[in-house]
Amino acid sequence: MNSGDWIFVMSLSILPAALISVWRFRAILPSSRPFVYMTWLALLNDGLNNIFTYPGRANAWNNNLYILLEWILLAWQMRIWSGPGKHIIRYQIITWVIIAVWLVDMLFLGNINRFSGIFRVCYSFMVVVLAIDRMNHVIIGNRTHLFTNAVFLVSYGLIVFFSYRLLIEILLVLHVHQTPHFGIVLFWVMAFINVFCNLLFSIAALCLPEKKRFILPC
């Protein structure tokens, strides 16, 4: 297999999280479902990437749609995890501002069939900010059993992945001079970080809180 095939195989590391989410879907609380949908969407997009990366085909359009949908799911999940009635307006404003950036980036600065970094920079930065906020909240409120806390695991994974992705997107937007070897190294590191974060997401899928089971009195 060539390097592209290996990177695709590594991207399928989201499969365990997606399958665990299917297995536990009826048992988990509805408040965790945006995360579940995110794992399914990621798996679907990885499959589409494999289809559209054959010679003569481009995968920019599906990736541009994917990151928009991923942002909506992530913002939705972070808003739910922030607690009922808390910061709803703030999350709504942030969500719509980033969606507006996507529309401007796709419709005016570029097009959906071309990779554009403006939205990716804004999106990655905001995901890191929201994830840090959620992780700090968990650490302050629950100092024990952090690595069995789904919110902590997901937030930590998002911080690691999107911090590195933010670095790559900034380099691309600024057209920082890169040798071919340097570019290959960057994307190989991204592939390994993706595997690590997907492992965290798989553990998080196992730790998602379940619905309470009520037993009727005799």
Question: What would your notes on this structure say?
Answer:
The chain has helices at 3-11, 15-24, 33-52, 60-81, 88-109, 117-141, 150-173, 180-207. The chain is an all-alpha fold and 218 residues long. The protein has one domain (3-207). α2 (15-24) packs across α3 (33-52), α4 runs antiparallel to α5 (88-109) and α7 runs antiparallel to α8. The longest helix has 28 residues, at 180-207. The chain is globular and about 55 Å long. The chain starts with a helix and ends in an 11-residue tail after the last helix. The mean pLDDT is 86.
Give the arrangement of secondary structure elements.
Layout: H1 3-11, H2 15-24, H3 33-52, H4 60-81, H5 88-109, H6 117-141, H7 150-173, H8 180-207
Helix pairs in contact: 2-3, 2-8, 3-4, 4-5, 4-6, 5-6, 6-7, 7-8
In percent terms, what proportion of residues is strand?
under 5%
Bulk shape = globular
| Amino- and carboxy-terminal Cα gap | 62 Å
- The low-confidence runs, each spanning 5 or more residues with pLDDT under 50, are none
Radius of gyration: 18 Å
Return the average pLDDT rounded to an integer.
Answer: 86
Structural class: mainly alpha
For the secondary structure, the number of strands is 0
SS field, number of helical segments: 8
Largest sheet: none
Strand and helix order: HHHHHHHH
Number of domains: 1
Helix content: over 70%
